[in-house]
Design brief:
- The complex is a heterodimer.
- Chain A is built from nine helices and two strands; from the N terminus they run H-H-H-H-E-E-H-H-H-H-H.
- Chain A is mainly α.
- Chain A has a single domain, classed as Orthogonal Bundle (MetI-like fold).
- Chain A has a two-stranded antiparallel ribbon with strand order 1-2.
- In chain A, strand 1 and strand 2 form a beta hairpin.
- In chain A, helix 2 runs parallel beside helix 9 and helix 4 crosses helix 5.
- Chain B has one domain: Orthogonal Bundle (MetI-like fold), CATH 1.10.3720.10.
- The longest helix of chain B is centred in the first third of the chain and has 36 residues.
- Classes of the chains: A mainly alpha, B mainly alpha.
- At the A-B interface, helix 3, helix 4, helix 7, helix 8 and helix 9 of A face helix 4, strand 2, helix 7, helix 8 and helix 10 of B.
């Protein structure tokens, strides 16, 4: 007897549209729930990984702009951080979706040199791109605030030392300021990454429709809770998945954090 | 509202707007802002209570209680809050109905779980199916308050536990040297001082709570998100006030509302921080 083999082949990739078309309707087994909710986790991980990855770069840029002496860098960065951090992600999803729907449908040809692709604006109304953009902007603002705080607490001595050995401009930033900022920001940044990972459950719950029932873990969990009217099975399952992946994420970040701090003596930490 | 509103089709734009913005449904939209604020101000004390309980449990000298406190306060780190909402609400609803079921209908023999259904006797329904609409709404709101308090209480437990730990140990040693009992030490030394350390965390939590209030919509309460969707949707010419899809506009209003709320809260917390750190042996207290 193989464990959930049938369900696995039917539903393991259901969240991206491969496998059985119809979701289980009656005689829902534990296997169905485990496999399908796990399949939905792919979306949560997809959103979290890409948003955090791209968000890192925008956040660094926004944090630097926020710390700039020039008002035309500083003020837009401040406004961006204020609007995103001051409003619920839920509302941001709604607004983005309504705005994306209003954009006229068209295709834009982009020449990549070796091949030509057509970028279509209707992709924005789909979760894979539209929700990703919202999550990306959201995490960028929160992370920018964290990075800005860290940037402000980079020790003055480090900067003076950098000046003393003749570093300046981009080199000084790359070698001294940026690593120190990351090191200081890392614990809060870990928290933000966890928050964002958890926020991915909002995607299909707010405005973005799950096309052909391709949804994330919470989409399937609530589907099962609706069908069986028994919350005591699907929700603990999704909770288990999230606990496992959050632990994984924490481990990954603490590994990176240790690498950032590797030159610092242990008794100084 | 106004007398000239009898035939909106014939009005010019200013009058049309004055009529549109004062329809019964619009007024319900305005009132739902009150629902959100009511939720915030009603849940805040309950959250503190839950958080306090959790933190106390985690500090307890009884081992199982300590484990419970630890589990409660760390669960929110691993599991998205929305899953808790979805779960806690149905679980609470079914739990209440089940308890009423076994107390009110002891001679009911059929099982409560029949395949995919959850069946309780009619008297145990909560609220009773004969109850008026507003009872259903109040009950739903009440469940939402409990759900919010449960989830955010866990956040608060974390913050308060950290604050208890942050009170300088020398203070407690001095109190012990004066011969204070554990309870007295807690009341006179620990409790008054921990608020300074708890405030940054609690203000952060308040911000998170504000930004979590749209979840009320998911819990089936007729809040601002519900009305924004309802009123903003395109209305055909069959309606008294036909208009296109205005949802974007309505959501922008909500955005402004939330920005104002968080901005205002930030100012209040700044003042509060200055107030509680007065006379404390911290950097903020000495200036």
């Amino acid at each position: 007897m193989s464990l959930c083999a049938q369900e696995f082949s039917d539903y393991a990739l259901r969240a991206i549209g491969i496998g059985e078309r119809l979701l289980p309707k009656h005689d829902i087994t534990l296997c169905d729930q485990f496999v399908l909710i796990g399949s939905g986790m792919m979306w949560n991980i997809y959103f979290a990984v890409l948003a955090v990855f791209f968000g890192f770069f925008l956040a660094t840029a926004v944090a630097l702009a926020r710390a700039s002496d020039r008002w035309f860098f500083r003020l837009p960065a401040k406004a961006f951080i204020f609007v995103i951090r001051g409003s619920p992600l839920f509302i941001q999803f709604f607004i983005a979706y309504e705005a994306f729907v209003l954009i006229p449908k068209m295709g834009i040809d982009i020449n990549l040199g070796f091949t030509e692709i057509t970028v279509e604006t209707r992709w924005l109304t789909k979760a894979w791109l539209g929700a990703l953009i919202v999550l990306f902007l959201n995490t960028s603002a929160y992370t920018a605030q964290i990075f800005h705080g860290a940037l402000m607490s980079v020790p003055k001595g480090d900067l003076e030392a950098a000046d003393a050995i003749g570093l300046s401009g981009f080199k000084k930033f790359r070698r001294i300021v940026f690593p120190a900022m990351l090191r200081l920001a890392w614990p809060s940044y870990t928290n933000e990454a966890i928050f964002l990972f958890h926020a991915t459950t909002l995607v299909f719950f707010s405005s973005f429709p799950a096309w052909r029932q391709k949804g994330d873990a919470l989409y399937y969990a609530s589907y099962f809770a609706d069908k069986t009217f028994d919350p005591f099975i699907p929700y603990p399952i999704i909770a288990l998945y999230f606990v496992i992946f959050t632990l994984l994420l924490t481990l990954l970040f603490s590994f990176a954090g240790r690498r950032l701090n590797r030159h610092i003596r242990k008794d100084h930490q | 509202m106004f007398e000239y509103c009898a035939d909106p089709g014939s009005l010019d734009s200013l009058q049309w707007w004055s009529c549109y913005l004062t329809t019964v449904k619009q007024v319900m939209f305005y009132k739902s802002f009150g629902t959100v604020l009511a939720l915030l101000f009603l849940t805040a004390p309950v959250i503190l209570l839950f958080g306090f309980g959790g933190a106390m449990a985690r500090r307890s000298r009884v081992l199982p209680l300590r484990w419970f406190g630890l589990a409660y306060s760390s669960m929110v780190r691993g599991i998205p809050d929305i899953i808790f909402f979805m779960f806690a609400l149905i679980a609470l609803d079914q739990g209440i109905e089940y308890i009423r079921h076994i107390t009110l209908c002891p001679d009911w023999t059929e099982p409560v779980r029949q395949g995919n259904d959850f069946v309780v006797c009619p008297q145990a329904k909560m609220p009773l199916s004969s109850a008026p609409q507003w009872v259903h709404q109040i009950y739903g709101f009440f469940l939402a308050v409990i759900g919010f308090a449960f989830v955010f209480g866990a956040f608060a437990a974390n913050t308060l536990y950290g604050a208890f730990q942050a009170v300088p140990h020398a203070q407690l040693e001095t109190a012990a040297a004066f011969g204070m009992s554990r309870a007295k030490m807690f009341r006179r030394i620990l409790l008054p001082q921990m608020w300074v350390y708890a405030l940054p965390g609690l203000s952060n939590l308040w911000m998170i709570l504000i930004k979590a209030t749209p979840l009320l919509f998911l819990l089936g309460v007729q809040d601002i998100v519900y009305w924004a969707k309802e009123l903003g949707g395109a209305k055909t010419a069959r309606f008294t006030y036909p208009h296109g899809d205005w949802r974007l506009g309505y959501f922008l209003v909500l955005l402004v509302f939330y920005l104002a709320l968080t901005w205002l809260s930030e100012r209040v917390f700044e003042r509060l921080t200055r107030r509680v750190s007065r006379g404390q042996a911290t950097m903020g207290g000495t200036t």
